[in-house]
Amino acid sequence: GTVTDEALLEERRDTLLMAVARGRSGYGLAWADLAGGRFLCCEIADEDALAAELARLEPAELLVPDEDGWPQPALARSGVRRRPPWLFDADSARRQLLRFFGLQDLSAFGIEELPAAVAACGALLGYVEETQKQRLPHLTAIAVESTAETIAMNAATRRHLELDTRVDGKTRHTLLGVLDATVMPMGGRLLRRWLHRPLRDRRTLEERHHAVAALVESRAGDDLRERFRGIGDVERILTRVALRSARPRDLSTLRDGLRALPELRDLLAPLDSPRLDALSRELGEHAATCELLSSAVAPTPPALLRDGGAIAEGFDAELDELRRLSTHADQFLVDLERREREATGVTTLKVGYNRVHGYYIELGKAQAAKAPTHYTRRQTLTNAERYITEELKAFEDKVLSARERALARERGLYEELLDSLAAVLEALKRAAQALAELDVLCAFAERAEALDWSRPELSEHPVLRIERGRHPVVEAVRDEPFEPNDLDLDDARRMLVITGPNMGGKSTY
C-alpha cells in the first residue's frame, strides 16, 4: 500500500493503504493512494457498512488495532497488519495530524467532529511516516467522503453487479470492460472510482451528461483523445517529483504532457459545457514550467540519472564544458601532439596516457636534448623520456575528474529542477486531475457514439422509464443482436415479477 515505484504498481488501478479505527457508534476509515497523492476518510455505522467499503476500495494493505472483537470482513483478507492499539488513539492522532499539516485545528478538512476518522487518519499517517522515512509533501489535505452523496451498495450487490470483476474472479466482460475507452492510465483509474462510487447528486450528473453531449455533437472528443495519446501518467509522476524519486524520463514525460495543454484548451474553448469550461481552466497555464523542462531536460534522457545525459546540452555552461572535456579528450591530445611536434621539430614526439603517471609527452633518448625548458621530466624509461607541461597538467586535472564532476553537476541541477517543480506542484496536480476527468468524459462520448447510447433524463420523482433498452455487457459479449426491452416503473408500479425458462434472459431484462 505504500509503494510509489511505477514498476510495482498496477497502471489502471489504485493501490490503497487503509486504516480502520473503532468509534463509539461505528468505525472510522482512512485510506491513501500514495502513488496518486490522495488522502481520504469517512465514518460508517456498522459491520455491514465496513464490509461494503472494503469491497469498494479493495485496499492492498489494511491497518487494524491488535485487539479482539474485529469483524471477519476486516480480517479475512490479505494484507492485514495488526498495529498497537495506542496508535489508534484519537487525541494522539489529532496532534499528529496538526503537526503534519501545520494547522491549529482540523476544521479546514471537516473532520474535527469525526473522532473515529481522525484516529484512523493518524494511524495511517504514522505508518506511512514509519515506512517511508521521508517527508510526504504530496499529501496536502484530507478529503471526507459522505455516504449520503452516493448510492449504497453492500458487498454482495457490488460483487453480483460485476462492475469490474466477474463472480468467477475474471475481469473480462464486465461493465468496466465495456466502458473503459480511456486513453491515459489516470483516466482509467478515475473511471473505476466513479463506477464503484455512483453519485446521487443530480447537478453533478447533469453537468457530466451535458459535457458528454457537447463532445459527441462537436466530435471534439476524437481530437482530444488523439492528443491524450502523447500524455503519460502525470498524476503518479507528480507524486514521484514530490518524493524526489522522479527519474529523468518522468520529467520528459511531464514536459511532453505540459506541451499538449494549450492545444487541449483550444479544442475545449468553443464547446458549450460548464463542466468542460471548468476543466479547461483547471488545466491552467504552465508556460514557464514547460519552458524550464524543455530547456533543462534532454530530448531523450537516460533511464537513470547516474547514467548521465539527463540535463539538456546548452542548459548549463559549466556542465557543457565538463562534458566536452570528457568526450573530446582524444581530439585535444591529437591537437597537442601536432602542435608540440611543430614547436620542437621532433616528428616522433608522442602524447600519451599512463594509469600510474597520467598524461605525458614522450621523446626518444636521442631527442631528449631538444626538450624545451618548459617541459618537466615526469618519467625516465630505457629508451625514452616522458615530460609534462603546465598546459597538459591543467588538462589532466580537468579531464580525469570531468565525468565525475559532470555527474555531480548534473545531480545538483536535477535537484534544483525538482525544487522548481515542487513550487508549482499543486497547480500541476489540478491539471492532472482535470486531464483524468476529461479522459473519462471523452471515453463516455466515444462509447455513446460507437454503441448508439442515449442521454438519460434525470427526474426527482420515483420513476424509471426505459425505451428499447439494451444490456451493455450482454450486448458486447453476444455475436447476435440484443433484443431491446422496455421498462416502466413509477410510484404506482414499483415492482415487476419476471418469469420464464432458464437462460431466457430474465436476469438481463
Automatic annotation (TrEMBL):
SMART domains: MUTSd. It comes from Coralloluteibacterium stylophorae. Residues 170-477 form the DNA mismatch repair protein MutS core domain. This is DNA mismatch repair protein MutS. GO terms for biological process: mismatch repair. The lineage of its organism: Bacteria, Pseudomonadati, Pseudomonadota, Gammaproteobacteria, Lysobacterales. InterPro entries: DNA_mismatch_repair_MutS_clamp, DNA_mismatch_repair_MutS_core, DNA_mismatch_repair_MutS_sf, DNA_mmatch_repair_MutS_con_dom, MutS, MutS_con_dom_sf, P-loop_NTPase. GO terms for cellular component: cytosol. Keywords: ATP-binding, DNA damage, DNA repair, DNA-binding, Nucleotide-binding. One of its GO terms (molecular function) is ATP binding. Coiled coil: none annotated. Pfam families: MutS_II (PF05188), MutS_III (PF05192), MutS_IV (PF05190). The keyword DNA repair applies.
